[in-house]
Amino acid sequence: MEDKKRISAYQKLVEGIEGIIDSGKYTEFLKSMKKFHHYSFNNRLLIFAQNPDATKVAGYCTWKELGRGVKSNPKKIFILRPMPYKMKKEEKDKQLEENDEETVTLVKYGWTIVYDISDTYIREDAKEVPLFDDIKINANTSQDLYSILLKISPVKVEIVSTGNGADGYYSKSEKKIVLSPLQSEDDKTATLLHEISHALYDDFDYSKERNLSEIFVESVAYITADYFGLNTSKCSFSYITKWSKGDTKELLKLGTKIQDASDKLINRIEEQIKIADNQAA
């Protein structure tokens, strides 16, 4: 812990994402994100970097409340927690009395320790309490998901030759998504998911920030595809390692943006699923 205290939280995050990219485990990290949907992107990153096999984590007191104890010599996972504090600052407005002060609440971050469930045991004096709500993975087929994506697409979708051998593209100026017909159903669904991510959430200048745009969109598409059980083998991040050299901090900045966009897209799809289910009932 002493060593970790000497290293800034931000530096630990940078080292974490560098380690994940250099080891080629970026897709595994994205896949792990759905296990920790109550945590921020930065803490998900820290959890994976320290214990890629973690499935459910909590602090000592939380595990105790859940009827579990922590084993001897457990693997400690350090994550960040907000630490709000109040500070008084002198009000410089001359209209107020000289001794008037204003109290403001600030936030700093400190390390806290959590443990994976594999390092806990059920206490004899307590019944096991249900842990966390599991993420509900929808069991729809690729074809069902494809139909839902067509409904939530903000632009029209055309199934025609792309003209350049690509599987698909999104045209902002023409307000359309084009998908090549020369794809399997799974691949066509994955391509549509990618292009919808462009259409809904990609605000990068593609002419200047193509790599950022593609990393962002592919990450959002991967997380969403994995969430709904779609084959993710089509997703490729081979360009991340080459691009990120020297620009790891830029990729780290994308983290919260990726998380927010994927959460929004997943919620959007699930809302459409509920509508479809209600109509079928």
**Main sheet overview:** 3 strands, antiparallel
Structural class: alpha+beta
Question: How many β strands by DSSP?
Answer: 8
The percent of residues in helical segments reads 40-55%
Question: In one word, what is the shape?
Answer: globular
How are the elements arranged and paired?
Layout: H1 2-6, H2 9-22, H3 26-32, H4 41-50, E1 57-58, H5 60-65, E2 68-70, E3 77-90, E4 101-116, E5 120-122, H6 142-152, E6 156-159, E7 168-171, E8 176-179, H7 185-201, H8 210-227, H9 238-244, H10 248-280
Parallel strand pairs: 6-8
Antiparallel strand pairs: 1-4, 2-5, 3-4, 7-8
General description of the model:
- This protein is an alpha+beta fold and 281 residues long.
- It contains 10 helices and 8 strands.
- The strands form 3 sheets. Strands 1-4-3 form a 3-stranded antiparallel β-sheet.
- Strand 7 and strand 8 form a beta hairpin.
- Helix 2 packs across helix 4, helix 2 crosses helix 10 and helix 6 packs parallel to helix 7.
- The longest helix has 33 residues.
Quick summary:
The chain has 281 residues and is of the alpha+beta class. Helix content is 46%, strand content 18%.
List keywords for this structure.
alpha+beta; three-stranded antiparallel sheet; 46% helix; three-stranded mixed sheet; 281 residues; 18% strand
